[in-house]
Structure formats: C-alpha cells, structure tokens
What we know:
The structure holds two protein chains of two kinds.
Chain A: E1 6-12, E2 15-23, E3 32-36, E4 43-49, E5 54-55, E6 61-66, E7 72-75, H1 77-83, E8 90-98, E9 107-115, H2 120-134, E10 138-146, E11 149-158, E12 161-167, H3 189-201, H4 214-227, H5 248-261, H6 266-274, H7 285-289, H8 292-301, H9 312-320
Helix pairs in contact in A: 3-5, 8-9
Chain B: E1 6-12, E2 15-23, E3 33-36, E4 43-49, E5 61-68, E6 71-75, H1 77-81, E7 90-92, E8 95-98, E9 107-115, H2 120-133, E10 135-143, E11 146-155, E12 158-164, H3 187-199, H4 212-225, H5 244-256
Parallel strand pairs in B: 1-7
Antiparallel strand pairs in B: 1-2, 2-9, 5-6, 8-10, 9-12, 10-11, 11-12
Amino acid sequence: MPRPIWSGSLSFGLVNVPVVMFSAVRDQSLRFNQLHEPDGARIETKRFCAEEGKEVPFEEIARAFDTDDGKTVVITDDELQEVAPRRTRTIDIEAFADLADVDPIYFDHPYFLAPIGEADGTKRAYQLLVEAMGRQERVAIGRFVMRTKEYLVAIQVRDERLALTTMRWGDEIRSTDGIDTGGARKPAKAQLEQAVALIEALGTEWDPPAWEDRYRARLEDVVERKRKGQTIKAPKEATEQPSPVPDLMAALEKSLAEAGSGSGSKSGSGKKAAAKQPPAEARDGDLADLSREELYERAQKEDVSGRSSMSKEELIDVLEG
Amino acid sequence: MPRSVWNGTVTFGVIAVPVKLYTATESRTVSFREVHLEDQGKIEHRRFCSKEGEEVPYGEIVKGFEIREGEYVVLAKEEVEAAAGDRSKVIALEAFVEAAAIDPVFFAKTYFMGAGDAGTDAYRLLRDALGQTGRAGLGRFTFHNREYLAAVRPLDDILALHTMRFADEIVPGSDIDFSAPSRKPQEKEVEMAGRLVDSLHEKFDPGKRTDTYREAVLEMIDRKASGKKPRKAKEKPPEETPDLMAALEASLAGKKG
C-alpha cells in the first residue's frame, strides 16, 4: 500500500466521506545519488542562513514573500491554513461534467481516494459515489487546498475506486496567440479523405503496456555496461531534417500503399508499430543469443546509424527488421 | 511572440510536417522563498561530503547509481546522455488510437505544437484529419536528453502534444486496499445519488472557476505587509454524515429550493 499524502473529507451535497489520498503514479526512473568524486561518498544537502553562515534546523525555516514595493513578508504554515481552513481539509464537489468535455491539457497529477477508518457509514457513502458516478460517463469537478496551493480536481471512477486528477486552472493555460497554426485555408477534400484513410489504416487500440519506456531500458543498459568497464559514447546530434514533400497527394497515396501492404489488416499495422519490443523469449533465437558486442559488430557491418547508443534489444530490433 | 522550446518534424506515412513546440501551461501559484525565521536571512542549500563533513564545490560532484548497498556505478554527464535516444528531431507517428479511450492518468505534460517554417499545408492536413477521425497519433521523441512517448491531437485550431506516462508507472486500483461496507448501498440510495449528480450537471467551463485561494493568500500577505491583522475565514468544516439517506434527501431538497 502506498503512503497517503493527504487526508480530509470528500463533500458531495450534504454527504461527507472521510478520505485519504494516494498518488496513482509511481516513479520508475533510475534513482541517482550525488557523490563526492574524490572519495565516492554521498553528498548531503544542508540548509544555511546566508546572514549568519550557520546551519538552520528545519523548524526555523519560514516562507517569505517579496511584495512589489520591496517589503518582505514572512508567512507561517498556520497563516496559510487559516486563509481557508475548510478547503485544506475538504474536497468540495461543486458540479458534474462529461469527461469528454474536459480537455487533457488540464490534467496534472493522478491520485486515488480511499475511505478512512472502519465506520460502515463512511465505506457505504464511498461505495455510493463509486456506483452513482460509475453508471454515467461523468466526472465530479471540485476543489481543495494541499500544502500551499488550491487545486481544481476531476474525480472519476477507475478500478472501482474514486480516482482524483488535479487540474490546471483556466488562467494557467497559455494563449496560442502568435503561434503559426498553418493559416485558415482548408485542406483539399480529396487530400483530407486520403489522410483520414491513412490514419484509419494505422489505427489501433490504445494498449498502454505495448509502449515500453525505452529510455529507462537504455539507461539501465548504460549503467550495466559502465559497471563492466566498457566505454560509453554519446551519439552525435543529427542536423538533417526530412524535407516537406512537394506533392502531398502523391505522398498520401504512397503512404496508404505502404500502410496497406504491411500486415494487411487494419489493426495489424498499428499493432506492429506499437509492439516493437516483444519480450526476450519471444525473439528470434539466433539474435537474442548473441552478446551486445556481437550484435554491435553486425550492426557495424550493416552500417546501422546510431548503433553505438543502442541497447541490446534495440540492436536486435534493427537487425531483425 | 511565444518562443518555441523544440523545433523538429512530425511524420505520418511518408509525409513530413515541420513543427515547433511551445510551453502550454504555467503555474500561477503564489511562490515563496525559504528564509530563516529569526533574521529573515536567505536560506542556502549547501552540499557536504558525508565522509569528510566538508563543503564540496559543484565541480566535484558526480552522479552515481547504487547497485548494491554502498556500491555505486559513477556516470559522467555524457554517459547519461548516451541513453537519450533518437536525436533526429523527428516524431514518427507510429499508431493512431481513439483519443477518448486514453484515461486521464496517462497524460503528463502538454505542449502546443505549431506549424514550422515550411509545410503549413501538411500541418493543416494532419490537424484536420486527426480531428475528423477523433484519433491521437502516438510516437516517440527525444526532448532534453530523454526519450518520451507522445500523443499528438488537435486542440481547437492548433495541435497539442502530450508527453505520456508508461503503463508500469500507473498504480493499479488493487494496490489501494480497503474493506467493503457490511452492506452495499441500497438501490434507492444509488438512484438518489444519481439524481443529485444529474442536478449538479453542467458543461465543463474552465474559465468559470478561478483559484480563489491564490487571491485570498495574496490578500492576507497584503494585510500583513501593511501591519493589519489577517481576516478570519468564515468557513465551517463539514459535518459527519450519520444517515446517508437523510443527507441525500436534504441535498436534493436544498438543490431544488
């Protein structure tokens, strides 16, 4: 069970449910530590007062705000809480909206809510919200304060639990003024039809596990190679860009022909693209048995670009393809 | 004129669309700096060696990955960068999925994707075709020395690029464990709650709601700066709900009245 990061109550009409909040994201990235190079010891960060040059215990640290006219106002946590005592303890549901109307640009961080304590009434009220909201494609829109910030939130049902997503406020979305959106002219009807056909041909189901974090895998590979004493070189920056096609219609036709000749079926072509990294046991036996060095030599022979930064898995992919 | 943070090319099929990425969101939370309570002195974070107890200059700090308790593999900056991924500045859209089928949990950060210096015809074509199909294009790209999965979809007259979380970063609901109530909510209760949900239904309008806490914090700071006492908020904490049915009825009645 993850660690709770906030507790309070979820308020819906006159129904109040004591809840606790957990992050719905777990950081899987490789954790690096700062080390002191000469002796390899861990680095510790200490807080110092710049005035006295002395270390400051955590309790003696406050927040300061610099006003426009040059004054410094010191604020305590209590004062911040007193600004909105209810909202620091309550998620107030203000409305319900259709999930489809909430653009993903607003979504920030996902959490789960769970009922607190063993009181049957609490658990039943929580269950009631899950059932009432789960029946409709609705999200609850509400607000609450956590630490020093008020959040707009969307609550929906996921995995039979209440899932809360913090959102950005309307004025935290920047204007698109000044960004080139390609002009007002509409694409030619025939081109649009072909482009739609191409997108549909490359259409596939959203299958999250099919997309692996290749960066993480490569970083793990770099650590492993370094541990074995190998040399690691960064790949060169590419400068050339694919040039815009002179004839859009011809390019669309060519793309469609290629998409169609792939694996044939509609979902097949997308699946093929999405599942570029099958598990090792499902691989071509010969290549998977080779070491990275052996694979690298083969890649060298075939003049595969970017081979020096590729992991073993990527080399196999390239060589198989 | 906004400044782009990444310039490159989006491809679908053999079509290349020159694009520029722009930051789409910015925090407006009141930000504070750390000070020493006694003398309002600025707080500095200084780095010390845990072995010698001496302050360490920045140039002597390296990144280490702990492979075993106390045993580190040290990586230079260039070695970490070797893992970055494809540096070709191309986002090849490999697959197109129904945009509405993506759970909000997967969206990490959003960028606006404007047209590049040439090829606005292709840009409009991609945007309008995505709009017509209701699909988002998925592809990988390298940004700040790190490869991301990105979803590209239309947003009004522009394209938006969302960096995506990976499936194994998402906590499954089964990890959040709690016991079920001794009896399930009654059908009548669920039906009433459903009516309450309906009565509070509205079209989502982000402009309608503002961060009132931000305003209240700024007002409190203002009062404090001019030596006045902060105003006491007049909010009441919510009360317990001993009788679910009565609370639902009262909520619905309150909504009507």
